[in-house]
């Protein structure tokens, strides 16, 4: 699991893991990896037997407090509702307009050139901009926030950190905390309609949340909103370019876009691993995992399990066992958003965000293809996506007409 071969192409190992070692022990990090769909779903939906206690070590130091995934009961219900309100209803409609404007502005400079790196030129800045818009933070600060966000994300998603990288990540968290402190003070005294204001003014058990609580939830939302978005947008275009007949169908029928996004999330989920801790010993496929052990749910492997999906190693936007409508809900068959109590709080937002961006880009990127000499490469074990995605397309004049 920690080898260069696995890092280069984990999908090549999924079938072998599911069939031969569905409970894989990795001694270097004293952790167990589950690859079958039924086992992963069991862990994610039984939150009494499989807890999120490991986030005290994996997340709290950089989140500056407890995150949603650590909460249960009335506290989880109340605080999750506060966050969800920032992603739904009229708030979501406002965000969709901002997302469209933001995406159009970011793409505009590349249209006359007929070339864009969909990851580094567009996806990464777009994802951070969108997260800042939701929170109500100043988009002008996006580059420094992105740098701090990257350090926090590295801490949460690394399976092994050197002391030097750990110090760097903790420093990023401290700087992000210091940046947010005056914002929180200002929103407490003069709240607006943004999510930070909602967090600052919301009450739980009759008591408003502390600055530490608010800071942790802001960073929680920042990571959750920004980390998968750029990866999913790039992966969607990669798969459609690799399957030109499906690209043509999506261009002809925009209603298929939701299915293309759902299949992208199944086929190449940006979040590959979700950790849990066993409350008591548990048996999977005849193997006993001891109490107190860290268990990593392999989302990528589970999403390609033939017990859950027909012909799972094929990218197919028409597959009957996916169900586009339910793919962004708790009833989803794929596990890209997790499952159960701690399923991704922003699934509906993610769908609206990626659909809005893809619907904008598809007509602009006419005859889109890989740039000459481009070599595709993905990185990441915990979260995974393209290093870059250099694309050529028919250039567009400032007037909106195409050259050629």
List key phrases describing it:
404 residues; alpha+beta; three-stranded antiparallel β-sheet; 16 helices; globular
Quick synopsis:
This protein is of the alpha+beta class. 51% of the residues lie in helices and 11% in strands.
Present the secondary structure layout.
Blueprint lengths: L3 H5 L2 H10 L2 E4 L4 E4 L2 H9 L4 E2 L3 H4 L1 H4 L9 H13 L3 H19 L7 E3 H18 L6 H16 L5 H27 L5 H7 L1 E2 L2 E2 L2 H32 L1 H9 L4 H11 L5 E6 L3 E3 L2 E3 L4 E5 H4 L44 H18 L4 E2 L7 E2 L5 E2 L3 E3 L12
Parallel strand pairs: 2-10
Antiparallel strand pairs: 1-2, 3-7, 4-14, 5-6, 7-10, 8-9, 11-14, 12-13
Describe the protein's architecture and organization:
By secondary structure, the chain is of the alpha+beta class. It has helices at residues 4-8, 11-20, 37-45, 55-58, 60-63, 73-85, 89-107, 118-135, 142-157, 163-189, 195-201, 211-242, 244-252, 257-267, 299-302, 347-364; strands at 23-26, 31-34, 50-51, 115-117, 203-204, 207-208, 273-278, 282-284, 287-289, 294-298, 369-370, 378-379, 385-386, 390-392. The protein has 16 helices and 14 strands. Strands 1-2-10-7-3 form a five-stranded mixed sheet. A three-stranded antiparallel sheet has the order 4-14-11. A two-stranded antiparallel ribbon has the order 5-6. β8 (282-284) and β9 form a beta hairpin. α7 (89-107) packs antiparallel against α8 and α8 runs antiparallel to α12 (211-242). The protein is globular and about 60 Å long. The termini are far apart.
Question: Sheet bearing the most strands, described?
Answer: 5 strands, mixed
Regarding quaternary structure, what we see is: single chain
Q: Could you estimate the helical fraction of the residues in percent?
A: 40-55%
Query: Rough shape?
Result: globular
Distance between the terminal alpha carbons, to the nearest Å?
49 Å
Given as residue ranges, the uncertain stretches (5+ residues, pLDDT < 50) are: none
The string of secondary-structure elements, in order, is: HHEEHEHHHHEHHHHEEHHHEEEEHHEEEE
- How would you classify the helix and strand content by structural class? alpha+beta
Rg, nearest Å: 21 Å
Strand order of the largest sheet: 1-2-10-7-3
């Amino acid at each position: 699991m920690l080898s260069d071969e696995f890092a280069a192409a984990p999908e090549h190992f999924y079938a072998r893991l599911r069939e031969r070692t569905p409970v894989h022990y990795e001694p270097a990090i004293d952790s167990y990896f589950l690859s079958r769909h039924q086992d992963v779903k069991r862990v994610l939906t039984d939150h009494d037997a499989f807890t999120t206690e490991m986030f005290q070590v994996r997340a709290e130091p950089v989140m500056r407090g407890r995150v949603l995934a650590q909460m249960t009961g009335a506290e989880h219900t109340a605080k999750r509702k506060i966050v969800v309100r920032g992603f739904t209803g009229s708030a979501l409609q406002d965000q969709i307009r901002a997302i469209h404007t933001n995406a159009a502005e970011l793409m505009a400079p590349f249209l006359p050139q007929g070339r864009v790196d969909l990851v580094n030129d567009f996806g990464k800045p777009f994802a951070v901009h969108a997260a800042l818009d939701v929170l109500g933070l100043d988009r002008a600060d996006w580059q420094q926030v992105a740098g701090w966000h990257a350090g926090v994300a590295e801490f949460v998603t690394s399976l092994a950190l050197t002391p030097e990288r750990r110090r760097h990540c903790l420093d990023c968290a401290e700087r992000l905390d210091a940046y947010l402190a005056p914002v929180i003070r200002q929103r407490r005294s003069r709240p607006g309609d943004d999510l930070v204001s909602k967090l600052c003014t919301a009450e739980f058990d009759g008591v408003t949340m502390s600055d530490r609580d608010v800071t942790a939830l802001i960073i929680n939302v920042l990571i959750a909103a920004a980390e998968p978005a750029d990866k999913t947008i790039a992966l969607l275009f990669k798969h459609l370019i690799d399957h030109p007949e499906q690209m043509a169908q999506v261009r002809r029928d925009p209603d298929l876009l939701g299915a293309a996004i759902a299949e992208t999330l199944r086929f190449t989920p940006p979040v590959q691993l979700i950790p849990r801790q066993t409350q008591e010993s548990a048996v999977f496929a005849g193997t006993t995992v001891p109490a107190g052990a860290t268990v990593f749910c392999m989302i990528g492997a589970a999403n390609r399990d033939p017990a859950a999906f027909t012909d799972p190693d094929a990218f197919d936007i028409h597959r009957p066992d996916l169900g586009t409508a339910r793919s962004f809900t708790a009833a989803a068959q794929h596990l890209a958003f997790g499952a159960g109590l701690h399923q991704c709080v922003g699934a509906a937002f993610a769908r609206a965000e990626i659909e809005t961006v893809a619907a904008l880009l598809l007509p602009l990127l006419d005859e889109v293809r890989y740039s000459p000499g481009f070599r595709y490469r993905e990185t990441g074990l915990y979260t995974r996506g393209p290093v870059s995605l250099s694309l050529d397309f028919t250039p567009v004049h400032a007037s909106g007409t195409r050259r050629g």
